[in-house]
Amino acid sequence: MQIRHLIASTAIAALTLGAAALTAPSASAQETPTYTCDLVEAPISGFNNCVASNGAPASGPFQGAYIQPRLGPFPGFSCLYGVANTPDDVICLAPEG
Q1: Looking at the domain assignment, is residue 3 inside a domain?
Q2: Is 15 a domain residue?
């Protein structure tokens, strides 16, 4: 009887932890400095109405950021370092990859 109770308790705990892991976003995804601009010309720049988020500086040099479009045909891209001048533009001096 005690073994069944122990197995049932362990199974419930495992299911609870598994569900928490599936619903919790990763810390790295939440903390990536990001610039969102109306338009992006990958892998060079983002421009028009740029907004810094997740700790990205609004102006001046930056290291390690993701630049994503609000509009336009181009996808976002990762940048090793560059210069931000929000809200006008974000220039990537070293695209990642």
Answers
A1: no
A2: no
